[in-house]
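Sequence in, structure out.
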Amino acid sequence: MILDNRGLEPPQPMMRTLTALEEMTDKEALVIINDRRPMFLFAELDELGHHYETEEQEDGSFRITITKSGD
């Protein structure tokens, strides 16, 4: 699943991302594209135990691949 969060004002990107993660199964991956590095989201993902990888894009946006943890 890919969520394009560009153009949205905080906290919308984070809320959309967390809602999508709730609907996913364990070990499933979610790709999000944000205008900026989502520092508050990273803290939340760390707390929830989800793994994520960040790639800065040529246009300055960030592509983050999140793998839902499987407790």
